[in-house]
């Protein structure tokens, strides 16, 4: 099945593509070049992150940690978070409810 959602530039060195969604849930691919950043931010959505490939340094609240291909974790609603890509890679994020700002 062909994806109906476009690939968009999320920030310098980072692209985003919605993979699937409904009102309650959204799955999104983020592709990072080495050095690409997901700036610190927060949102009302609970987020699950699966590291499909690459290596990333994450900040979630007051915690900093590195993750690589195969790792996954959950970011609670409202928690400030962001990342820096250490090795080119892809994150698959799930959001509940859906991130309408990505549509």
UniProtKB/TrEMBL annotation:
CDD domains in the cross-refs: cupin_KdgF (cd02238)
Domain Cupin type-2 per the UniProt entry, residue ranges: 30-89
Domain of life per record: Bacteria
Stretch forming the signal peptide: none
InterPro entries (UniProt xref): Bacilysin_H2HPP_isomerase, Cupin_2, KdgF, RmlC-like_jellyroll, RmlC_Cupin_sf
Protein name: Cupin
Organism: Maritalea porphyrae
């Amino acid at each position: 099945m062909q994806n109906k959602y476009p690939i968009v530039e999320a920030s310098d060195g980072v692209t985003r593509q919605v993979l699937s969604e409904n009102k309650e849930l959204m799955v999104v691919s983020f592709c990072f070049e080495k050095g690409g950043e997901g700036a610190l931010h927060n949102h009302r959505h609970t987020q699950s992150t699966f590291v499909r490939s690459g290596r990333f340094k994450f900040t979630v609240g007051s915690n900093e940690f590195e993750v690589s291909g195969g790792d996954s974790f959950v970011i609670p609603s409202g928690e400030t978070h962001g990342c820096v890509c250490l090795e080119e890679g892809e994150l698959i994020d799930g959001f509940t409810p859906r991130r309408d700002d990505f549509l």
